[in-house]
């Protein structure tokens, strides 16, 4: 086409008096236009066909183009260690590792053994400044029956590496949780043993206290002696046996107090078989014992009121008014520890009259 256009231009500029150009002047313009059109059609068909042929033909250029499209880095070294093919990905990785292009196989070996300071190596993973993680592999391949050729590949393992790191963090967190759980279980075991010991001490304290009060009542008054002796023998028998049971309901507290000559009057209600009932029963037993022992009273009043998620329990008696603040003995001290360990509070008042005030959570505290 480039030849035809100047030719056409020269024909248009020809001198009609020049006999040498007569054959051009006599030719119709349509012939030249047709020639130009045919040339354009030829090139339009031939160029794509030639491009497809070059693309489908196996050649060094097509091989290099194919390797450049791979997501991995790859290069090949001949038996003499010379790099004969290296795709763009591997070339960029070599610049990141050693700041120059690979020429021989030992260049890659040196780059992997002593990479640039900006590259972090963990196990067989290379973490580049752009936070991508790569693994390199070398293997022998056979070319023309010669197995000394080598293929070096680089694989992007960023997602796998980050996943492993995350899993390690999770494992460390689980190990810490497991350690805390073991510590908590050990503490729970100690707490259970301490609670069992405390319950036993409270039970023994209450039983001995009731026994002593019964003995004093027998000495002071001869009324209903047989019944009182039976209660005393029952208490001594339970202490001597291997099976220790404790008063666990308010009704049993009332019956036991009645045997000792004390009337227990209750205003309010507590759910059965709850920590609140257990603590209130323990407080009532202690107050019945102290009413007889210290206040010379014969009535104990218990008022229970629910306030939101807590119970307010007030215990008083009709005995003598204390003249000084109450000193907590082993019974009250043990009761305080039990209440406070359950998340409650305990207060003792002596003026204008004795009163034991406790606040107990309506729901048990979870460990």
Number of strands: 11
From the alpha-carbon coordinates, what is the Rg to the nearest angstrom?
51 Å
| First-to-last CA distance | 93 Å
Strand content: 15-25%
CATH superfamily annotation of the largest domain: Histidine kinase-like ATPase, C-terminal domain
What does the main sheet amount to? 6 strands, antiparallel
What structural category characterises the helix and strand content? alpha+beta
CATH topology term of the largest domain: Heat Shock Protein 90
Mean pLDDT: 79
CATH architecture type of the largest domain: 2-Layer Sandwich
GO molecular function, one term: protein histidine kinase activity
EC number: 2.7.13.3
Catalytic activity: ATP + protein L-histidine = ADP + protein N-phospho-L-histidine
InterPro entries: HATPase_C_sf (IPR036890), HATPase_dom (IPR003594), PAS-like_dom_sf (IPR035965), Sensor_HK_TwoCompSys (IPR050482)
Description of the molecule:
It is an enzyme of class 2 (transferase). Its EC number is 2.7.13.3. Residues about 5-15 and about 235-245 have low confidence and may be disordered. Helix 7 runs antiparallel to helix 8 (about 225-240), helix 7 packs antiparallel against helix 11 and helix 10 (about 275-295) runs antiparallel to helix 11 (about 330-340). The protein has about 375 residues and is of the alpha+beta class. The chain is built from 11 helices and 11 strands. The two termini are about 95 Å apart. It is rod-shaped and about 145 Å long. A 6-stranded antiparallel β-sheet has the order 2-1-6-5-4-3. About 55% of the residues lie in helices and about 20% in strands.
């Amino acid at each position: 086409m480039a030849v035809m256009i100047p030719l056409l231009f020269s024909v248009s500029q020809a001198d009609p008096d020049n006999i040498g150009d007569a054959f051009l002047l006599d030719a119709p313009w349509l012939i030249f236009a047709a020639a130009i059109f045919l040339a354009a059609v030829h090139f339009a068909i031939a160029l794509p066909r030639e491009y497809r042929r070059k693309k489908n033909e196996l050649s060094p250029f097509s091989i290099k183009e194919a390797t450049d499209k791979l997501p991995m880095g790859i290069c090949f070294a001949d038996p003499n260690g010379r790099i004969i093919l290296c795709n763009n990905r591997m070339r960029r990785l070599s610049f990141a590792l050693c700041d120059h292009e690979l020429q021989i196989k030992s260049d890659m070996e040196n780059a992997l053994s002593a990479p640039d300071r900006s590259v972090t190596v963990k196990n067989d993973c290379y973490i580049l400044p752009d936070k991508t993680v790569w693994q390199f592999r070398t293997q022998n391949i056979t070319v023309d029956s010669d197995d000394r050729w080598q293929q070096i590949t680089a694989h992007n393992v960023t997602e796998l590496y980050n996943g492993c790191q995350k899993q390690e963090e999770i494992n460390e967190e689980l190990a810490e949780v497991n350690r805390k759980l073991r510590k908590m279980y050990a503490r729970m075991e100690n707490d259970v043993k301490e609670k069992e010991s405390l319950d036993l001490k409270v039970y023994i304290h209450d039983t001995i206290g009731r026994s002593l009060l019964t003995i004093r009542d027998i000495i002071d008054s001869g009324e209903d002696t047989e019944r009182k002796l039976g209660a005393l023998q029952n208490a001594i028998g339970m202490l001597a046996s291997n099976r220790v049971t404790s008063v666990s309901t308010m009704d049993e507290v009332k019956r036991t107090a009645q045997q000792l000559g004390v009337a227990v009057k209750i205003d309010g209600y507590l759910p059965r078989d709850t920590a609140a009932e257990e603590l209130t029963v323990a407080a009532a037993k202690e107050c019945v014992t102290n009413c007889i022992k210290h206040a010379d009273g014969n009535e104990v009043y218990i008022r229970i009121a629910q306030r939101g998620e807590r119970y307010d329990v007030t215990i008083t008696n009709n005995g003598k008014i204390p003249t000084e603040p109450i000193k907590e003995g082993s019974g009250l001290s043990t009761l305080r520890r039990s209440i406070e360990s359950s998340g409650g509070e305990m207060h003792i008042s002596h003026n204008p009259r004795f009163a034991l005030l406790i606040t107990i959570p309506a729901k048990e505290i979870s460990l």
